[in-house]
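Many introductory courses stop at the sequence. We go one step further.
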Amino acid sequence: MSRGNSNGTTSDGGVTVNVTLSPNAVLPGFARRPEVTTEESCRGFSRCGWAATAAWAFAREDAGRAAFAFKAGLAMLLASLLVLIGEPFTVFGTNIIWSILTVGIMLEYTVGATFNRGFNRGVGTMVAGVVAVAVIWISLRCGSVAEPYVIGLSIFLVGAATSFVKQLPTLAPYEYGFRVILFTYCLIVVSAYRVREPITAALYRLYAIAIGAVLALLVNVLIFPAWAGEQLHRELVASFAAVADSLHDCMRSYLTGDETAVDGGVPDDEPAIEKCRATLNASARIDSLASSARWEPPHGRFRSFSFPWSHYARVGAVLRHCAYEVVAMHGCLHSKIQAPDGVRQAFRAEIEDAAAQAAELVRVLGGDVDGMTRSSAERLSLLKSVHGSAYGLQLALELNSHLLVSAGSLVEEAKNGGGLERSCSRLHESTRRQRLSWPSREADELEETEAGGGCAAMMMRTRALESTAALSLATFASLLLEFVARLDHLVDAVDELSKLAKFREEGDPI
C-alpha cells in the first residue's frame, strides 16, 4: 500500500488505513496480560498505603519489634560476611554456611530465649557431632561394602531414639535439643560419606556452628537487648493494674445502673474488662517468659543468678484466679435478670466499700512488685480492712435478706383487706418504674390481666419474678466475696516472692 498524506489519501487517489494493534490482540487468551484500569491502580495504591500504615502502627506499638528486625538482619549480614570474605571461606570451605543456618535458627526475640535455644543447639550439636564422628570412624573400619549399611542403620537408631525420648514429659522443655541432634547427625553423616576426609569435614562443620552461635548471642546481648525478665516483670505489674481497674469499673457500672452496661446491651468500649480478659489469655506468655528469664545473666534490677522467676509465674496464676471472678461479675452486668434499683441502693454502701478496699489492695500489691519493695504493714492493714468490708457485706445480706425474697407482700395486703384494686394499681406502677429486663413483657401482660379480672394471680407471679430478679444481686455479692477470699492467696504469693527475691523493705535506702 502506498504512503498517504496528512489527509489519509495517496497521490494516486488511494486511501490508507492506519491500524494499531495492542500486544494482547495478537496473543492467545491464556497469554494475554490483564489490562489495569485507573480505578484498579488507585485501589492498589490505597492498599499499599493501608499496609504501610498498619506496619508503622505495629512497629510503634512496641519499639522492640523493629529493634529485633534490625538485629536479625545485622546478625545474618555478619554471618554472610564469613562466606563473602576470602579468608574464612578458604579455611572452612562450604562448611562455613552452617554458621548462617545457626544464626537464623538461634536468634530469638529475647536474650533468655536465645540463650535457651543456644543451649539446646550447643548440646545437641556436640552430642550429634561426637556420635557422628564415632559412627564415621566405625564405618571406615568396616570397609567400603559395609559402610553405607552401618551409616543407614545408625540414622535409623538415632532418629527412633531421639523421637521417643523427646516425648517424655520431663524432657519436654528440651524438645528442640533432640531435634537438633537428629538433623545435625543426619546432615553430618550423610554429607561426610562422599568426602575424602569425613572426620575433618565434620569438625569444620562443628566449628562453623559454634561461630554462628557466638554471633547470635553477641548481637542479641550487646545491641538493643530485650530481656525476658524485664518483660515478665512489666506484664505482671500491668496485670495487677488491669484486675484492680476492672473490679472498680464493674462495681461502679453495677451500682450506678449504667443502661448500656446493665440492660442487656454490650458497650462498644470496655478497655478495663478487655485488659482483664487479656490477663486471662496471657498465661502461656507468662510461663514462656519465666522459662526464658531463667537463662538470662544478671541484668538491671535483677542482680542474682538464682532469681525466682518461677514464682513470678505462680503469682500470675493466682492473680488470674482473681480475674476469673471479675469477669464473672462483669457477666452479671449483661445478664437478662437484673435486680431493681431499690435493692441495689440498699446494699450500695457495703458493695462499694468491699470493692474499693479490694481494688486498693490489688493496686498496692502491684506497686510492691513494680518497686520491688515489701510494705508488710500496709498490706496487713489493707487486708484487715478488706476482711472487715467483706464481713459488713455478709452481715448486710443476712439482716436485709427479706429484700431479696419479698414475694407475696402485696398479695397478703390484698387478702387482709387492703383492697384489690389499690393493690393492682400499686403493682402496676411498681412494675412500670422498676428496671426488670426479665421477662421483658411483664407490664403488658399485667395490663391484659387487669382487663380480664385476674389481677390477684398475676400479682403473685410478678412478685415471684421480682424476687428472682432481686436474687441476682446476691449472685454479684457472692462473686465479690469470693474475690476477697482469693486475695488471701494472692497476698501470700506476693509475700513469698518478695522474700525469695529479697525485695527491700519500704523506707530502706536503694
